[in-house]
Amino acid sequence: xxxxxxxxxxxxxxxxxxxxxxxxxxxxxxxxxxxxxxxxxxxxxxxxxxxxxxxxxxxxxxxxxxxxxxxxxxxxxxxxxxxxxxxxxxxxxxxxxxxxxxxxxxxxxxxxxxxxxxxxxxxxxxxxxxxxxxxxxxxxxxxxxxxxxxxxxxxxxxxxxxxxxxxxxxxxxxxxxxxxxxxxxxxxxxxxxxxxxxxxxxxxxxxxxxxxxxxxxxxxxxxxxxxxxxxxxxxxxxxxxxxxxxxxxxxxxxxxxxxxxxxxxxxxxxxxxxxxxxxxxxxxxxxxxxxxxxxxxxxxxxxxxxxxxxxxxxxxxxxxxxxxxxxxxxxxxxxxxxxxxxxxxxxxxxxxxxxxxxxxxxxxxxxxxxxxxxxxxxxxxxxxxxxxxxxxxxxxxxxxxxxxxxxxxxxxxxxxxxxxxxxxxxxxxxxxxxxxxxxxxxxxxxxxxxxxxxxxxxxxxxxxxxxxxxxxxxxxxxxxxxxxxxxxxxxxxxxxxxxxxxxxxxxxxxxxxxxxxxxxxxxxxxxxxxxxxxxxxxxxxxxxxxxxxxxxxxxxxxxxxxxxxxxxxxxxxxxxxxxxxxxxxxxxxxxxxxxxxxxxxxxxxxxxxxxxxxxxxxxxxxxxxxxxxxxxxxxxxxxxxxxxxxxxxxxxxxxxxxxxxxxxxxxxxxxxxxxxxxxxxxxxxxxxxxxxxxxxxxxxxxxxxxxxxxxxxxxxxxxxxxxxxxxxxxxxxxxxxxxxxxxxxxxxxxxxxxxxxxxxxxxxxxxxxxxxxxxxxxxxxxxxxxxxxxxxxxxxxxxxxxxxxxxxxxxxxxxxxxxxxxxxxxxxxxxxxxxxxxxxxxxxxxxxxxxxxxxxxxxxxxxxxxxxxxxxxxxxxxxxxxxxxxxxxxxxxxxxxxxxxxxxxxxxxxxxxxxxxxxxxxxxxxxxxxxxxxxxxxxxxxxxxxxxxxxxxxxxxxxxxxxxxxxxxxxxxxxxxxxxxxxxxxxxxxxxxxxxxxxxxxxxxxxxxxxxxxxxxxxxxxxxxxxxxxxxxxxxxxxxxxxxxxxxxxxxxxxxxxxxxxxxxxxxxxxxxxxxxxxxxxxxxxxxxxxxxxxxxxxxxxxxxxxxxxxxxxxxxxxxxxxxxxxxxxxxxxxxxxxxxxxxxxxxxxxxxxxxxxxxxxxxxxxxxxxxxxxxxxxxxxxxxxxxxxxxxxxxxxxxxxxxxxxxxxxxxxxxxxxxxxxxxxxxxxxxxxxxxxxxxxxxxxxxxxxxxxxxxxxxxxxxxxxxxxxxxxxxxxxxxxxxxxxxxxxxxxxxxxxxxxxxxxxxxxxxxxxxxxxxxxxxxxxxxxxxxxxxxxxxxxxxxxxxxxxxxxxxxxxxxxxxxxxxxxxxxxxxxxxxxxxxxxxxxxxxxxxxxxxxxxxxxxxxxxxxxxxxxxxxxxxxxxxxxxxxxxxxxxxxxxxxxxxxxxxx
Length: 1452
Fold this sequence. Notes:
By secondary structure, the chain is mainly beta. The strands form 27 sheets. It has a 6-stranded antiparallel beta sheet, with no helix packed on it.
């Protein structure tokens, strides 16, 4: 078998050539350590000019386009593009992430800026609204956001002299923002007559509300407040792209290639024209400047960085160069020297020294370059051009040898033969031309077998053959130099290839994913000696595979850095380095190759290493084919928790059925019954797909979950209390360190986590909004303040919460595969681990994100599937249990040891003060010392060890253990079979709770005169339960097949059971031993019923549409009921035992005469008159009302009538148990409804004396007992029923005023303003004429709402002498909003003032003087008002309006 594992060597990024100058600005700074920070492609670079060394920040996965430096100049913030772009704040010393800010912006992050003390960060998005966000970046928390502008914003800055003020500028605007509370409000800068309205590209803030900004025409605009006060014309000859403020003054850089320095008052100091310097050139354009002391950094449009020392300003140092804008495709390496050659669409060819990390030669060509090759002797460099020509240069001095144009389409690949005699040139017109090098590149042959453009070529070692790949993925072979195609397989067998750069061929099968036929791999290069190969693809990823790589879907190591497609990749001549080039990011990356043997020494190298390697997500790191998954885990990973319809969808579904509601509302509907039920006891524990979900509380009770119920069980009194806040399956449970609170997570479209108190059973916090489909793991931090949760969405999102505030702190995509457990580090609440399918990850919080590192396995083995994990006695020790029975011991992220603990998976693990306890599939509980060196004791869970006080029977020896917890001198164990056991340290085991195992439970029967019931389930067991206060399982029998129905005989001595294979048994009800069995059907037996009285007949209904009637005494079939068109669902006898009522899946209600089975037609009025022995039917006029409005979506699965025929209980597909009055005539009867089951309730039965209602849930496997409470002596308890769907409003009962107010619709009014067609500029955005007052310097009180004159009027007044328009000032308002508001008049200032509102104005009325003052910041009707009563906040008023909420403070 070919090795599909990833290679053990790896790559380390050593150097990046280039700087992102195009489409970016202000992205180049000095750090505190005098290093230079900038970015290129998806990499943040910290460059030390002194040591000529680079460090890399690799936390982004797409192009970085913005950068800001923290005021202390150590931390850097960078923003990227992408569908879900994020901001990283990172440390320039360690290049480690400090914080991640995400989930707000879309498209990209255009600019960033820190405030003066570095606590807050502002960011601007690239979305259509150019959203502006302010962050508390350390916490990763969004403080405020607002739409920025309709057009692009180019720069934003905090005003360093006024807190909470910002300035942003961009296309034809500048805005001055103030941050108040969590709202950002902008004011547009007024250009007035002082300057033209134009695009502002950069800005800097100064003292006294002065702002300097650089404009597109090269002027500098000076602002005071929001007004333009003067312009400095001609500061630059063209647009000013960058402005940088420092202690000495300001530096500006523009498109004219000049850098100008200004003093603090913006008086010119000096000009540096870079075009005139030695390194300069025509067209040089400055994109970024940074002035620090006597050094100036300059970044240009063409990817260069200059450093200028001020007193030698005409000699700038060129410290970084790269290709200019345009795709970069051509790459070749020198055959004998450490040199790489690149050529790009910027028409330049460049030679780089891989040792000195520098550009050593550059030559400009006439045409864009698409490929390059160096001759075997290293003398000639051939370049293929986009126009179909190729040029050969001498490497020594870059002079031209020859220029040949034989083709019209681009040349995409050329290669010299190993003997140096030929050059093969492959073009986009599907042919390869062969030229003789010695004959001055005369054409000597042509290969024309391809049907598409040529993408890759390789020569054989003896220069006699050439292989090509084309755009169709075809691989062809040619004889050289003639170019004749070779098709004979034998001839090809022994060929040795001189190089391997082709993407198709047997040797490189493994680089393609298993089921892919795409051509997104651009380049390959094999290192024959090291047996590895490197690939470059369209996703910006460089991958390392083994070579040869024969089987599809091989494992690899992957490296990020390039942002868009990587176009080419090559090994250096001595295989020390890999060089890769990016297309759109036109950068050149140089990677150091670290072979296996050096890896061991390099475990302690630069920290970013692990960061890169850890990203090999799709590749399963170092393992080849994974061992078979354990059957139980396999089963569990295949469970889907998706629902067709979620309970959250109910309101919408009801909304869709509005018409039906109206018709129902017009009829008088039956009232809901007066009696009610209360959940009393639940048999069951969710063990088959959950783990570690069972704990002791503070008071020694036991908390666990089943179905949608959190259960607190008191084992002394054998009673249960229930948390009923969930409405669907609970999948996980964690307990607070103080053992008094519990967190539970459920299934749901937008699933919620509830934190509740085990004493009061009251919810403390409900967390929603971040997990789709469900929550599968939760964990509290050691201080109890934080909670981590994992979702079951496709990415298994991990969220860290401050649960008391209900605030999401951080989130990250966890893994594509299932995650089973999350654990927060008890010593450092910012760290956590997750384990799951082939997954062990160590996370640390960084602001709003989490950074994950894969566990490093090293030589100790392979990543196994982990089932459980705990932290140990120090912050870096962690322990995980694997699916093969080992315990892995981790220090930091490194695996240091594995210990064999169980046969089969280790499902549960618990840390003690000294030591650990583990439980596995082998049914053994093991106690360990604190280093996992010695196993101190084991307990096997066996029937023989069961103590006499057990509440049931153990189904099998050594059941799979899913949860373990310690406390109160005992070990608590939860099993896959739904049992909870308490193991005494001395050995005896007590069974406390028991339920059915995995599989749907449908069969339910109550005993005719004892408090006993029987259940039968798809788990192939028949069980008898005691319903009296002892609540335990009395008997169990394993069956050969699962069953769906059962029934006691009228004397209670026999029990009939229908099985899923079409057979049925009658067993002794006490011993469960067979009395008789039959099989006449092939399909599931769906219902089985003894006739009343002596129980002479037994009716057996099956899913193949028949009911068979048997004579019990003679054990013969005496009748068959035919005529049903679908499977039988329900069946009832009449009192005489002569008539059968049958319901079918097609919703037919049929009647058959017994015992022959003749079909009868009975009118519905007659049906009511017949006395029925039982009523479990869901059809007919007596129970028309039990079908919900959304009856098409959900089925009523079961019903049962009390013996006094007054109350009908039903169970439905939504998991609701409902009580109706009987008969429930008329549609949509009213009911009481109870939630506890999660999915469909499959069966409901009253006990013989109606004291209890027994219900079973299908997939939730639980058996629930409800006490029946007759009207009159009901305690008012929490969680009584929710009333029915159609509430009291249809019954009237509303005062007419209330009804009217209830029907007012504000939305229409609020929206109508936007529906009118709008033209021109909105009034508040028009430029204001300075008023007479302003010209004369009169300051009016800030209440003016005046708008400037409309444009039209002004044009008509041309030539007339303009009269200055006076401001209007609001003086008096008549009116008060009382028609639809309440509690909106208050006294202020001890009764001296009255505050109220009308229209969009808040009014403060002085009682003594009768004067009014106004709050006018709202822009639509105010609907509510309240006054802060707290003595600390006197006169603070809050008012709420349509559309927006604003705060106002009392006006004195």
